[in-house]
Amino acid sequence: MKASTFLTKEQQSLIRNAIIEAEESTSGEIRVHIETGIEGEVLDRAAWIFEKIGMHKTEDRNGVLFYLALNNRKFAIIGDGGVNAKVPEDFWNEVKIKLEMNFSNEKFTEGLAEGILMTGLKLKEYFPHVKTDINELPDDISFEDNLNKE
After folding, report:
1. Model's pTM, two decimal places?
2. What is the block-wise mean pLDDT of the chain (150 residues), using blocks of 10 residues?
């Protein structure tokens, strides 16, 4: 299974639309990155990807990455320092449980969309959208295949 062909174009569009919807009410930035497989710890790889795709460069340090390693059947959710300083300690666990429930039923698109929307609502509480907000990061899913293009 190759990361870039794991989701259909329609599924990718649904996830992208969830990101756009979630970001409409917050200055926070949400991204999804999918890789075929990894060696090592999923959190370490997700943190490396977070930096590689520039998520640590948002003005308010309010980026969130949903990272999937398909062949390993692992995922991670990484929030930047500004987010982690504000959201309740158990918030990421709540999102993780939502994703696990969907993923265990092979509902990857639905799980990501629900997790993204949950995250957007929480980001709205601490990083509300203001008129001067700009979309600091792309809304498209990134894949290991296009990592060097970012």
Report:
1. 0.95
2. 91 98 96 95 96 92 97 96 94 96 96 98 95 88 74
